[in-house]
DNA sequence: ACCTGAACACCGTTCAAGT
DNA sequence: ACCTGAACACCGTTCAAGT
């Protein structure tokens, strides 16, 4: 019988888990190799170096996390409903908890920067469209999109910064509704 | 003549600079020692270990950065003016650029967690008071404080995530005014 | 095709010894 | 009081060799 051998995806999945938990520095070859039950040498058959692992893992996340959510709500006709559902999914599901804060913190990282920028621009553009559909003029729609996206980013970061304090952030549905009302903005 | 010798504060200052630039993992003994022109061994006379350096540096930042700003605006009588000035200082000055995102990303870190939590709670409490002075009932004031603080955190993080894109975030005073109007909230 | 094992450079930590 | 210098453990990377 053959021993179980690893695929590239096994490394990517492990890397994303480590990234979310311990930040960019936790994407470390030796600990991941131990966790996967192989030696460090085997890593370098799948990837050229640690940077390549990080880049590929983030690109995979970009596909799965970002684009999937937008696809999920893009078909909702009413812009108000669309925004509500978008924020609800983004705030309550948070598929890989802690990943986004880890990325923003390493915004200067040459691997992280281009991916984070693409994701941010895509999301802000999508929000801007939705606010335009709500009737806001172009400049106003873009500014509202920036403010709403800022509040979203800040909210999920606060939730991490204060795990047991500030209980409204984690649990209270009324506080969440208050946030979403604010995100939907002046015409909501 | 005596050779220049280092104080604890020299290490703290160097550590905060490294932290802001490269995150928690950049607070590294050997690179800092090289930068300061001493050997690694000398570090361990001033601090028990790397963790102590990080902790002391963050406590110093907590004193200087957080409390100083609140003191600076606490005397402003009109709550609307107070909030405007607070957000203006917090958003435009950003004394150690990139420090806060670095901290939020390592919210799980046992050194970072308690300090980040104290700072967050102090700021949210201060905002809550100001919104109460503006006439919001207690629960509403607290929720508005959370939303406003989220938007503030998200905004400074967006600014880092997209350095040359999204130019409104960095430069445009009108976009900033739009943000502050939103932060000041329903009665602003 | 996928992995081991040994090698080397770099950082965290300790500690005896220096001034 | 403050620092050096050598030691050891740990992680990133390389590469020849194994199956």
What does this structure look like?
The structure is a homodimer of 188-residue chains. Chain A has 188 residues and is mostly helical. Chain A has a single domain, classed as Tetracycline Repressor, domain 2 (Orthogonal Bundle), CATH 1.10.357. The first copy, chain A, has 10 helices and no strands. Chain A has helices at 8-22, 29-36, 40-46, 50-74, 79-92, 99-105, 112-133, 138-161, 167-170, 173-184. In chain A, α5 (79-92) packs antiparallel against α7 (112-133), α7 (112-133) crosses α8 and α8 packs antiparallel against α10. The model of chain A has no long low-confidence stretch (mean pLDDT 86). Chains A and B meet through α6, α7, α8 and α10 of A and α6, α7, α8 and α10 of B.
Interface with most residues: A-B, 46 and 46 residues
**CA distance, first residue to last residue of chain A:** 62 Å
Taken from the alpha-carbon principal axes, the silhouette of chain A is: elongated
Give the name of the CATH superfamily of chain A: Tetracycline Repressor, domain 2
Protein name (chains A, B): DNA-binding transcriptional regulator, AcrR family
GO molecular function, one term (chains A, B): DNA-binding transcription factor activity
InterPro entries (chains A, B): Homeodomain-like_sf (IPR009057), HTH-type_TetR-like_transc_reg (IPR050109), HTH_TetR (IPR001647)
Keywords (chains A, B): DNA-binding, Transcription, Transcription regulation
